[in-house]
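Sat 14:20. Reprocessing the chain from the morning session after the first attempt stalled halfway. Input below, unchanged.
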Amino acid sequence: MEASKVNQLKLFIQQCDSNPALLQDPALKFFRDYLEKLGAKLPASAYGKGESAKKTEAKDSFVDESDDDMPELEEQFGPSSTSPKVPEETASDDEVVESEVELDNEGVIEPDNDPPQKMGDPSIEVTDEKRDEAQTAKSKAMEAMADGDLDEAVNHLTEAIECNPTSAIIYATRASVFVKMKKPNAAIRDANAAIKINPDSAKGYKWRGMARAMLGHWEEAAKDLHLASRLDYDEEISAVLKKVEPNVHKIEDHHRKYERLRREKDERKKERERQRRRAEAQAAYEKAKKQEKASTCKPCGATGGCSGGMPGGFPGGMPGDVDMSKILNDPELMAAFSDPDVMTALQDVMKNPANLAKYQANPKIAPVIAKMMGKFAGK
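Finished this time. Tokens:
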């Protein structure tokens, strides 16, 4: 607003203040009505003969530009048809709950919970004599296995392990017996011992993979069996893999499906948040424009309550042809609007333009205000 018009308005108000009878002029009745609408109480001398102050309804009140006391945009002005709508959450946005995978669990057994079997002491010195004793005990175990006496085979192999606890093959052999006895956990303990002694123990990986398959641990079983096959292929491994791999493929497909659903859910959540920010920015802009319109001074035609600026809450006034899309589509400004410190500062400046000076040296606030002013200037 031009300074000359502001000065004229000040002079007019000073004259009215010193001589309220000026408002009796019928030509100024609209201005007197406007003051009453804002809640002003005029002296009796401001009314002509037979006139009196109008009773204002409770709902007519002064439009305070303070954000603390201001009602929500839709409550004050009604819903805007141009405001962006934030999509509501739907049932598909609930927490993704995985369903059970339909697997072929034929042959899967309950885990064995027997006390751990005896293991060898790796710290003892293994002499040639002890190695011979271990070999003799292993031979007896093989004979017992051939006769179908698995318990006896385990006893002889345990004796062999105690004589030579550094032999990976003896541990792997006992693991194979435990698999035949349907004791997968015991087999896994022996297979782990064999692999610890010899990381390239094909038998260790083979029997651990088969034991894991018996427990339904399909992915771990497939990993062990594939490694065993690369180290020392045999037909027995191939046969077990033909049962294990279909289940592994189902599990992998299941994981991929639910990973995709979680990503899609996260993207929907992020999009709702982006639209919410746009809606809030648009609502703030529309609120400022409504307030600017409501505070237009009819006698002089000025906006912003004849204050010379800040109709939109920004220094110097917000031009009527601001392209809000420049603000709403600016990712830096949209991110800044989500910062409580930034929004508090903007509201502070909207209440009192002079407060802008408080933030000119603030490295977080000053660039945001400067950028917004640039948008208003059409940069």
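Residues 56-81, 297-320 have pLDDT under 50 and may be disordered.
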